[in-house]
Amino acid sequence: MSYLKVAPFALLVMAGSSAMAQSFTVATFSDPTVGQAFASSSLFTFNHTTSQLTGSWIDGTSSGNLTVTVGSTTFTNSSFSMAPVSATAVVAGLYSLGAGSAKFSTATDPDYLTISWNSGFLVTAFGFGSTSPAGSVTFGGSSVASLPASTLSQGSFNFGFGNVQNSGNTQTSTASFTASAVPEPFTIAVLGLGAALALTQRRKTR
Q1: Beta-bridge mates of residue 80
Q2: Is the peptide bond before 133 cis (omega within 30 degrees of 0)?
Q3: What is the rounded CA–CA span in Å between residue 113 and residue 117?
Q4: Going by C-beta distance under 8 Å and a sequence separation of 6 or more, which residues neighbour residue 95?
Q5: HSE, side-chain direction, 13 A CA sphere, residue 45
Q6: Which of 6, 7, 60, 100 has its CA 20 to 30 A from that of 13?
Q7: Contact in structure between 66 and 79 (CB atoms under 8 Å)
């Protein structure tokens, strides 16, 4: 079985898990680059040479307005930062991620939301995410204080890539985002995709 034949299986996993998943949405944002020039509007960069994923969005200098909703509160003109996260190749297009954190801020609130994780998955064509308990996803920042503690007990998040561009060993992309209290469809799909690709590799070696 080839990698291309595995792709439809991964899409089916995504569709099926999307229908089954029920979750409380902790935070979300839509792709802020819609309608903007892509050249100055990437949120994430993945370097295939260094195997590192980085992310940033600076209000006032990036194209588009990053608007993030946390619970029932909306934060406009947001900035976003994520220090480099190490990635280890599993099979082509699929990586396991090391620990990391993503912080959201505004001019008046330097840390209204921080998401931290111990491990995660990256699928270069789709996005990246993590889910508890394996990824130990936690939420912090001023905005989460108003959320019920029970909603933060089983954290998960995903950044869904858009406008993926490749130049040499570097991939840039925009993204939309969702953080929830239970595994989101993306993270379930990543596990399914990983299992499918692993099965493919095993069959090739037989």
Answers
A1: 57, 104
A2: yes
A3: 13
A4: 51, 87, 88, 89, 121, 122, 123, 124
A5: 17
A6: 100
A7: yes
